[in-house]
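[User] Once you have settled down, look closely at the record that follows, and write a paragraph about the fold.
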Amino acid sequence: MDLIINHSSMQPIYEQISGQIKEKILKGDLKEGANLPSVRTLAKELRVSALTVKKSYDTLEQEGFIITIHGKGSFIASTGPEQMMEEKRKEIENEFEHTIRKAKSCGMNHKEIDELFHIILEDS
């Protein structure tokens, strides 16, 4: 599987793995029913602990992105349009939060941020 692990990132490795798999699902690169590599196979490929990959798969399963069948493996679950839309909203919300924090750290106040947001919104 084509995943990139950044060992110097502040983001935990299991989150990097689950995030990239989730992104591939949402983009349609991984289709419903597709088989994911086994935990041990992906761990060897990425040179990380099998426990790290297992934690990633568990997270994806809890969020409804994959299903695991004991003895058969992990597969991409059916993701409905509502779930996909909710994930996109979360992503946008996180980007807004990051941008607002950055603006505040540069000394912008709420009014300036709001004005800038509306200017950009009108231009798009």
